[in-house]
Amino acid sequence: MPSPRSPLSRLFTVLLAGVLAGLVLAVAALPGSLVSGLVTKATLGAYAQLPDALRTPAQPQRSYLYANDGKTLITTFYDVNRTDVPLAEIAPVMRQAIVAAEDRRFYSHGGADPRGLLRALVANVTGGGTEQGGSTLTMQYVRNVLKTDPTRTAEERRAATEQTVGRKLQEIRYATALEKTLSKDEILNRYLNIAYFGSGAYGVAAASQRYFGKAPADLTLAEAALLAGLVQSPDAYSPIDGDKDQALARRAYVLDAMAETGAITAQQAATAKAEPLTLHPTAQPNGCTAVTQGHDDWGFFCDYLRQWWLAQPAFGDTVEEREQALRRGGYTVVTSLDPKVQQTAQQQVTAVYGYDNKRALPIAAVEPGTGRVLAMAVNRHYSLADNPAGQANRPNTVNPLISGGASVDGYQAGSTFKLFTMLAALEAGKPLATGFDAPAKLPTRYASTDEGNCDGRWCPGNANPQWMDGYRMMWDGFGRSVNTYFVWLAEQVGEDKVVEMAQRLGITFRADSDAAFARDNAANWGAFTLGVAATTPLDLANAYATVAAEGTYCSPLPVVSVTAADGEKVDVGQPSCKRVLDPDVARAATDAARCPVGQQSAYGQCNGGTATSVDRIVGRPVAGKTGSSEQNATEAFVGYTPQVAVAGIAANPDDPADLVGSAVQARVIDAVARVIRTAVDGKPVKDFTAPSRELAGDPQRPRPQPTPQQQQQDQRSLPPNLLRWLQNRGRG
């Protein structure tokens, strides 16, 4: 039943009817030769003013996202699911059906059909039956182009469907001009490639696939009639999303119309009407939740790319325009995602924690010197599917657990932040050989009432005093992860310098409390060097990639190239890099970072590490650092070679109070190391460059002072006369 129209709608229709009826009558009263001359002149003038979209249609098209090989499809983005096909690849019954349903006089009018307009206006004014538009296929084509043209602003697209006399007259002028320059078949082909058929399908190729899973050349009479019937009210009549009974009623209407025009016989129409509705719906993947089947882990990377895209001015002045460019612009995007590295990363994270585990191991891999993101994996499905009660982010989530943002601030990464203290000290001129007799607990200048304070002052301690205490330099302080050495070193260089160094290398403080401390009180952030600020695997991997690239920071980049629908490259695929560290400072930090992973520094000063298995797994020059937060709430590891940096942090994304425990550290180290090995597989072995002697310093370790027990033991082995001499000398 047709919906009642408002008084304003009826008033507009009456006015429009009067204007157009007057025009039709006036034209009819003119001599034929004069009418011909006026039409020709008006048409030529209108054609000269045609928008570019009507001269050379820039119709909305899908954008395709591929992996870094340029062949592996990740997903597509579209508002308009369409693919152009030539008229020869569209079944004749489809062409006949659309003409019968929408414009029976298509092949006889000149773009506008005065008879049809008047018939529609009379019906609308009197209110009888369904409201009619009176637009020819050519006029509909004009309107469809202008309202979907991706080169026009949102306001311009809205204006293309405004209910005004001026807009309707302009549409008639454009349609008449097109009819003088394009053949009927060309107009019909263009119309069939842009018309909306419901259920997200634009154009007959997308529609035939969406509803029947076949090419438009293979449509039967009944199928063609059903599709042709949809364009009048696509959402209401769609047999997938709308009313199947109305869809069948419209199909019957189209079949009768085809019989009346002589395209088919009455018997053919009756036979087609009797056919049951048989659908074979197929869907083109759309967006990050519709990535290629079996690869829902790619969705996290896809989502990161989309967020990056929305920040690029090259795709529009506003976020809305950039979103429309992605969904309408027909771009071909070759991303930086490496399927092999991603596969290994996903296998490793799910080997540590299953998809349904409340704990997660997000891992990110970045290419030093370009910032290109090679992999983003976590033991979750990127999906909007419901989760069991009480499981907010598992096994399904679309939250950015790897890159951060939205509600994800990140996770504490523990001693991996000691890198920033070491870099700040090296930059301040302190060499790697800077020594300190690190105690088991170090009283600091910060007041504290926490349990374990030292006379009212904060005094951090070493996790394994027997192995960590004693005289340390940066090499073994970093290799053994000596807390008291690095808290002392941060005090020497200034905690604010350490915080600034982290920010310089891309660490973003997403938690409000962290951002406030960094902004207002960085000079008193003594615990910062122990990794108490939240971060993400992507930020952490990229920070270490900066050191791997000898001090060149590159913004994280998820693409290799972006090509527009016209084949032109968009200038957004190039790395955005800048030097943030002196190369020698970065080389010195790497020299110390060889110690944790079981390798040796260029100066032979490594004497123990917290992740020595990495050397065996990677099998080539590698550096890195472990990190454990307070009470082992999180466990992290970052490793890098000159060609890749990989970071992983084990945590509970929903409950920071849930301690993952120290037992998982070895598995995190193993997982990250295996991702590194895959990333460098087949690439030439590259070594790190040794730092200068000046920045290494003079690694002369003082002779350790023996304990009283050691002195007694040593003295018992001395000859009696020498022992008496030493004792007498001591009395003197």
**Order of strands in the sheet with the most strands?**
2-1-3-13-14
**What do we call the CATH topology of the largest domain?**
Beta-lactamase
Q: Name the CATH superfamily assignment of the largest domain.
A: DD-peptidase/beta-lactamase superfamily
Which strand-content bin applies to the residues? 5-15%
Question: Count of helices?
Answer: 30
Please tell me the overall pLDDT. Answer: 87
The total of beta strands comes to 18
What's the main sheet like?
A: 5 strands, mixed
Q: What is the level-2 CATH architecture name of the largest domain?
A: 3-Layer(aba) Sandwich
Helix coverage percent? 40-55%
Which class of the largest domain in CATH terms? Alpha Beta
Shape: elongated
> Which regions have little confidence, pLDDT < 50, spanning 5+ residues?
1-17, 23-44, 124-132, 710-719, 721-732
Report Rg. Answer: 36 Å
Distance between the termini: 118 Å
Integer count of domains:
2
Q: Which structural class do the helices and strands define? A: alpha+beta
GO molecular function, one term: serine-type D-Ala-D-Ala carboxypeptidase activity
Pfam families: Transgly, Transpeptidase
Organism: Micromonospora viridifaciens
Region (Disordered): 684-732
Description:
In the C-terminal section; belongs to the transpeptidase family. In the N-terminal section; belongs to the glycosyltransferase 51 family. Pfam families: Transgly, Transpeptidase. GO terms for molecular function: penicillin binding; peptidoglycan glycosyltransferase activity; serine-type D-Ala-D-Ala carboxypeptidase activity. Residues 73-258 form the Glycosyl transferase family domain. There is one protein chain. By secondary structure, this protein is an alpha+beta fold. It folds into two domains: 79-274, Orthogonal Bundle (Penicillin binding protein transpeptidase fold); 336-435 and 464-731, DD-peptidase/beta-lactamase superfamily (Beta-lactamase, 3-Layer(aba) Sandwich), CATH 3.40.710. It has 30 helices and 18 strands. The protein has a five-stranded mixed β-sheet. Strand 17 (635-640) and strand 18 form a beta hairpin. Helix 11 crosses helix 13. The longest helix is centred in the N-terminal third of the chain and has 23 residues, at 7-29. The radius of gyration is 36 Å and the shape is elongated. The termini are far apart.
